[in-house]
């Protein structure tokens, strides 16, 4: 019962963080938005630090769900539909990227990107035409993640923009292929 009473706070806080970052997490503002007393916030969470930890846990759970769906995606169209469906979660991750001077945000950002990379890997290689070069595909994926979160906004995170984004990444990979990829990029470095 107590968890269900916390849900509106988590939902509102998650959304505020996704759109405006950690500076949007103000108890008075969230209470007004929800039509609740500030005292209920403190009853459930104690302070903003605990609340923020719960938001990060919620994000971790959302990314787990997304990763399951990403692993099932068969083509770019399915992946794009999934990304659009989870716009709020991507915007939350974007804020983690922007505010990763906070060690907790950095840790969750890296963890969630790793989970996404693992789930999307096979499809990513197919999208880029790099089925024969998984190492290069994952290098491009790593670079693309950071670039992706720097570019996305509430306004542009849609089917048309995502199609253009993936077209640009594929074009870049094709240019690398046309130039000839150095032998050391064809395999993982020895440990």
List the helices and strands and how they pair.
Elements: H1 2-20, H2 27-34, H3 38-45, H4 48-72, H5 76-85, H6 87-98, H7 103-128, H8 134-151, H9 159-179
What does this structure look like?
By secondary structure, the chain is mainly alpha-helical. It has a domain at 56-185. The chain contains nine helices and no strands. It has helices at residues 2-20, 27-34, 38-45, 48-72, 76-85, 87-98, 103-128, 134-151, 159-179. The longest helix has 26 residues, at 103-128. The chain is elongated.
Q: Which descriptors apply to this entry?
A:
single chain; 0% strand; elongated; 77% helix; mainly alpha; 191 residues
Tell me the radius of gyration: 19 Å
How much of the sequence lies in strands comes to under 5%
Sheet having the most strands: none
Distance between the termini: 51 Å
Average predicted confidence as pLDDT? 91
Number of helices: 9
Helical amount = over 70%
Low-confidence residue ranges: none
Topology order in helix (H) and strand (E) letters: HHHHHHHHH
Name the shape in a single word: elongated
Number of strands: 0
SSE class:
mainly alpha
Summarize the structure.
Helices cover 77% and strands 0% of the residues. It is mainly alpha-helical and 191 residues long. It has a domain at 56-185.
């Amino acid at each position: 019962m107590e968890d269900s009473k916390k849900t509106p706070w988590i939902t509102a806080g998650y959304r505020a963080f996704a759109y405006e970052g950690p500076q949007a997490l103000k108890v008075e503002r969230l209470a007004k938005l929800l039509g609740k007393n500030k005292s209920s916030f403190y009853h459930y969470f104690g302070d903003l630090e605990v609340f923020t930890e719960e938001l990060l846990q919620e994000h971790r759970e959302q990314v787990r769900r997304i990763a399951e769906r990403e692993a099932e995606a068969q083509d770019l169209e399915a992946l794009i539909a999934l990304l659009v469906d989870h716009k709020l979660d991507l915007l939350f991750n974007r804020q983690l990227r922007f505010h990763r001077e906070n060690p907790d945000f950095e840790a969750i950002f890296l963890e969630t990107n790793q989970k996404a990379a693992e789930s999307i890997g096979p499809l990513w290689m197919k999208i880029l035409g790099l089925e024969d070069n998984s190492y290069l595909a994952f290098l491009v994926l790593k670079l693309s993640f950071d670039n992706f979160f720097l570019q996305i906004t509430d306004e542009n995170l849609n089917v048309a923009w995502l199609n253009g984004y993936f077209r640009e990444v594929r074009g870049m990979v094709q240019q690398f292929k046309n130039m000839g990829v150095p032998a050391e990029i064809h395999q993982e470095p020895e440990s």
